[in-house]
TrEMBL record:
One of the protein's GO biological processes: lipid biosynthetic process
Signal peptide feature range: none
Coiled-coil features, chain-numbered ranges: none
Protein name: Thioesterase TesA-like domain-containing protein
Thioesterase TesA-like domain span: 26-251
Keyword annotations of the record: Hydrolase
Similarity annotation: Belongs to the thioesterase family.
Domain of life of the organism encoding this protein: Bacteria
Gene Ontology molecular functions: hydrolase activity
Length: 258
């Protein structure tokens, strides 16, 4: 099970090498997030499941690259580097908020363009891909101060980063690109993934309703279950152990791919 990750890739970070892992989980961060968001989850799942955190362009060690303001383009870049890493282990995808959309589009590309279907998709903190809200704010068009205020209101971003002007010059461009990607996303008709979905949501998340979450079942030919956790939009940061237990239970027993 030697992996090309031993020499590194642009898009993936492996926090806890697990050469004997029975499955692999690719994790997609929220808007403005980075691969390191999933370090704690990786620790909980090792050594049975190897976690690969996706590092989007424009942040941290990819800061020299321009942020990508399109969900479909982000997914295509993820898939391009993921296909050579595939082996006989079941592959699952986990995405939170914007990451749920990137994970979903990644699943579509893997299955219908590369013949490599994912074994399972975990979509967290995001309404279904076909769900739109009329008159929704265009946060990516706000000035820098407006973008900072939005990040403060939503939570999930270290306040020390938002208070440092020099850091904001580095942080805000990829954040703006991420918001552009989410706010301009439109679901494209076409074949849906066949893998089962598990949808996670916080019971106090202002960004989703249960009706919007339930519509994820329209986007898979497999089973779709919804799991509700205490908390707001970033409940995932406070519920790592519970989420790891859920993921482990769902991945247990998956058969190796042919």
């Amino acid at each position: 099970m030697n992996s090309p990750l031993a020499t590194g890739t642009r898009s993936y970070r492996r926090f806890h090498p697990a050469p004997g892992a029975r499955s692999r989980l690719v994790c997609f961060p929220h808007a403005g997030g980075a691969a390191g968001t999933y370090t704690a989850l990786s620790k909980e799942l090792a050594p049975d499941t190897e976690v690969l955190g996706v590092q989007y362009p424009g942040r941290q060690d990819r800061a020299a690259e321009k942020g990508v303001g399109d969900i479909h383009e982000l997914a295509a870049g993820v898939v391009e580097e993921l296909v050579p890493l595939l082996d006989d282990r079941p592959l699952a995808l986990f995405g939170h908020s914007m990451g749920a959309l990137v994970a979903y589009e990644t699943a579509r590309l893997l299955e219908h363009e590369h013949g490599a279907p994912a074994a399972m998709l975990f979509a967290s903190g995001r309404r279904a891909p076909s769900r739109r809200r009329e008159g929704e704010r265009k946060i990516h068009l706000k000035d820098d101060q407006g973008l900072v205020e939005e990040l403060r209101a939503l939570g999930g971003t270290d306040e020390r980063l938002l208070a440092e002007p020099a850091l904001l010059e580095v942080i805000l461009p990829p954040v703006r690109a991420d918001y552009r990607a989410v706010e301009t996303y439109r679901h494209r008709p076409g074949p849906e993934p066949r893998c089962p979905f598990t949808v996670l949501v916080g019971d106090e998340d202002p960004r989703t309703t249960m009706e919007e979450v339930d519509d994820w079942r329209l986007h898979t030919d497999g089973a779709c279950t919804v799991e509700v956790f205490p908390g707001g939009h970033f409940f995932v940061l406070d519920r790592t152990q519970e989420i790891a237990a859920l993921v482990s239970a769902r991945l247990r027993g998956l058969a190796p791919t042919a």
